[in-house]
Amino acid sequence: MTQELAPTLSDQPAAQSAHSAGWWRDAVIYQVYVRSFADSDGDGIGDLRGARERLPYLADLGVDAVWLTPFYASPQADGGYDVADYRAVDPLFGDLSDADDLVREAHRLGLRIIVDIVPNHTSDQHVWFQAALAGGPGVPERELYHFRPGKGVDGELPPNDWESVFGGPAWTRTADGDWYLHLFAPAQPDLNWENPAVREEFESVLRFWLDLGVDGFRIDVAHGMIKAAGLPDLGVREQAKLIGAQVLPFFDQDGVHEIHRSWRRLLDSYEGERIGVAEAWAPSAERLALYVRPDELHQAFNFQFLTCAWGAEAMRKVIDESLTATASVGAPTTWVLSNHDVVRHTTRYGGKDTGLRRARAAALLTLALPGSTYVYQGEELGLPEVEDLPDAVRQDPAFFRGDGQDGMRDGCRVPLPWSGTTAPYGFGTGGSWLPQPDSWKDLSAQAQTGDPRSTLELYRSALALRRELPGLGDGGMEWLDGPEGVLVFARPGLVCTLNTLAAEVELPVPGRPVLATAALEFTGRAVRIPRETCVWWAV
Ligand code: GLC
């Protein structure tokens, strides 16, 4: 690795004009799931060099920043969300100089880079956990995690009734009889954030990556680090879900906010507006807004929007609740439709033609709303979930732990199709770690480029317009009247109409159409908007 630090984005002439203060308030941020994005060395697994080589595609797409999922040294028990060394790159993905090169190249292209930080738990291969295990009951390293004696006559029962998000008990017994807590897989022991050594270590890790030049962090399980004092029983035999209305003794505890406040101070001590985005599955929009108070994190994924069913009424309600909650703390809303943990929205919205139609319309809706938006790799290609993966190729630990969180997150992680007519479709030269469907030859970036009806060109146009039209991004919006099933709202200089119905609707022409997800039919002063179609109108 070069000794000199990577320049920050604000040092880059190309970037200065494209980004202003508060860049994150309306940024479009593209999620790269590293192992499935682009493979440079032919091992069938995406890597940092592959990602760097594809950065021009992302600059051309028109996004502002890129979030990279964990590429740190890890046994890969949970796709890298089990980190053994927070300051090292796993050889699967490259080395530190590849990370450095990627950050530099991104900045040269005017793109910011956000990396993942996984503070709720380490890998069971982390030196701390290994020392805790080897040392036996009572060693100080056990205080870095949650070790407890079991219940029952011989301590044969877990210390409490918590269940893992991936299914099964949240406790595993060690050879010496003590149990340790893991809200996720047994290979992911939860850290004890009441221990100052844990806090110090993570501040040092954050500095390590900030010094390397990253522009921020996506904070994994940002709502989970603090557990209720005494680790009280839940009292109900219910599978823990990442999202839900329940108040749980291990999620969304008030104590997590002090950690985020301290991280904000650290981020602010660096030049160039480095940001934190919370993956916080809070039970309500109001609870979520607490994570983006002025002295906390910059963004928090709006999972209420992600999980909202298709339909005008439901969508309008979530949009209103989200905007009201974030406005009450002066923060923008962070829209998201998909990520590496959920079924791709093309499939969630009904799959096949219906799902794709709705997904395209939802993308335009989202990009017209005030705030920032995350785009999950492949959604710009309209990729569906791969639902028929053979069990033998699956790697999601939730799949192997029974009826845990959704059980199967591999279907949204299938490597991207870039070009060509046979697998791995330009993903790399040596196959792909999950098989890509034959139908993906028509969905590759190459196949869609230049076709004005393609989803890729729709995203390119929308992102270009987002930069051109001053009324998009941050700022206010106003609902306008529309027929039932149709959402109509105004942004400065723009009206957005979304027909959620399965039938066409006729409206008075609201303005000059600048982008639509399907062909419109004009009859005098009226326009027929096809079923499940979103249109942007300049006014
Ligand atoms: C987050 C990640 C998910 C991971 C879990 C445990 O929800 O997005 O992929 O399995 O945390 O780290």
DSSP strand tally: 21
Count of DSSP H/I helices: 15
Helix coverage percent: 25-40%
Radius of gyration: 23 Å
Structural category is: alpha/beta
Q: Round the mean pLDDT to the nearest integer and report it.
A: 94
Indicate the CATH architecture of the largest domain: Alpha-Beta Barrel
Q: Let me know the CATH homologous superfamily of the largest domain.
A: Glycosidases
**CATH topology of the largest domain, anyone?**
TIM Barrel
User: How many domains make up the 3D coordinates?
Assistant: 3
The CATH class of the largest domain: Alpha Beta
Distinct compounds present: alpha-D-glucopyranose
Strand residues, percent: 15-25%
**What is the molecular shape?**
globular
- Uncertain segments: 1-6, 12-19
N-to-C terminal Cα separation, in Å? 52 Å
Largest sheet, spatial ordering of strands: 11-10-9-5-2-1-13-12
Largest sheet: 8 strands, parallel
Descriptive key words:
alpha/beta; TIM Barrel; Oligo-1,6-glucosidase, domain 2; 3 domains; 8-stranded parallel beta sheet; 5-stranded antiparallel beta sheet; 15 helices; 21 strands; globular; binds alpha-D-glucopyranose
